[in-house]
Amino acid sequence: MAHLPQTEFWCIIRGGTGSCQPSREAGWHPFAALPRVPPSFHSLRLSVIQITSAELKSTAELARLVDSYPTLQVCYFSELKFLDPTPINQVRRISRKVPGTFWQCKISACTDMSISAQARLALDLLAAAPRLGLAAADPQWTALLDTLLASVPSDYKQAVIQLQGPGGRDLDGHAPGAHMANQTHAVDAQCMIVTGRVVLAFSPTDTSDRAELEADVWVKLKGGRMTPTHAEDGSTHVSGIGLSAGFAVAGDGDPPSFDGFREATDSVLFDQLQFYVREGSALDERGMQALLRAVLRREQLIWALSRGILRLELYRYSGTFWDSIACITNKDILSALAEHSLPTVEDAPPTLDGNEYAEYLSLFLEDKRASYLQRLPALRSERAKAKAPLSEGTHTAADEQNVAALGTHASTAGGGDEHDEESQENVQENR
Q: Is 179 found in the same domain as 44?
């Protein structure tokens, strides 16, 4: 293989009913399922493994397979069945060393496995927590992951987990391969040695090319490379999480409560809870409107506002990365709660009700907001004719008193200008 240093090798195995049997005690090798034996796997620079419709003895067996290839980058597993689905023992596994280039694992439609279980398996295969330097039982990581996975609709079938170092590179500092292109978010150059991230994406079908729901968990170091030794001195911690706004409307039932994140983010080192819209995603756009309506009614995330950690963001795909093009800061939201009146154009009413204000804010860009104000009288007329409710969340004098108290509390909790500037820096780091 020395004369093909840049060649990317795939191993693809497709089973069928009864065609893939449990492995022997000695272990299972993917090439056993192929008609011819290729060159020794010790010399083969295998980049991608794809296995479909196979029955395996245990998840540990799958981990041993992954660990056998030091150049592995991506795994795709679909319709697998495990006779023993017990979680992987990471303590025993780290001694074998997980491939440093391994950055993405996609799992879908596995037998008798919920979307939550599939995501946890992918995280285990990637050894996400220990490779980012988090302690094996880090309480904040555990609580955050439990809350996040509980927010994913149970009928979703596909989980894709990505593990990234600074600048979208892998954790050993190598440049991203072809599979990482067009899938990562931008990360500011100033955080090249201080930030790592886990991206969790979920889709309702096992053939989806684009995730409907996505979450980013950001891990920050005090300095140095990301290795498990950082967990020993407590220098590694979860610093923030970003959720695609579609989480607010993804389920078929009532909108989810994000109060579960309150305890999971309760740390002085946790500095940002972000909800974002990927431009062009109808689900994200609907979710952002629903989220803002709930915030303006003081039904959601008031605790996050009082701590000064809430941030709403709009991202646009540039061809390689998702770049931030607009944001609503914690301070902006507090001002919106307190003032709830906007500059308007001619013939546009001077006061917006709660639903209209949520629609206005969710547009992010000033030109779109101006266009909305111009169209608002016509929109109101159309809604009146359709007998649609014009306002489900208008502001009252009691609301304004509560907001005043909230603003005072937010200032003492770090929700003022200084914290807002820090939040801006953190967003640039994380993305």
A: no
Q: Residue ranges of the alpha helices (H) in 46-152?
A: 59-67, 90-94, 115-126, 128-131, 139-150
Amino acid at 6: Q
- The number of helix segments (H) and strand segments (E) in the chain equals 13, 13
Question: Which of 136, 148, 47 is closest to 88 using CA atoms?
Answer: 136
* 329-342 confidence digits (pLDDT tens): 999 999 888 765 55
Q: Nearest Cα to 163, choosing from 128, 193, 215, 120? A: 128
Residue 307 φ then ψ, to 5°: -90, -5
Instruction: State the Cα–Cα distance between residues 163 and 217, nearest whole angstrom.
Output: 10
**Domain of 165?**
136-340+395-431
pLDDT of residue 70: 84
87 in the same domain as 16: yes
Is residue 377 within 8 Å of residue 386, measured between CB atoms?
Answer: no
Q: How many domains does the chain have?
A: 2
In a domain, 401, yes or no: yes
What would the two tokens of residue 25 be?
Answer: 């005690």
Residue 20 CB neighbours (<10 A): 20
Q: Is the distance from CB of 210 to CB of 193 less than 8 angstroms?
A: no
Q: Which two tokens stand for residue 315?
A: 């991202």
Identity of the highest mean pLDDT range in 93-97, 340-344, 362-366, 396-400: 362-366
Q: What tokens appear for 290 in the block?
A: 């629903």
Residue type, 223: G
Whether the pLDDT of residue 51 is over 70: the answer is: yes
DSSP state, residue 99: -
Residue type, 181: A
Burial of 165 (0-12, 13-18, 19+ CB in 10 A): buried
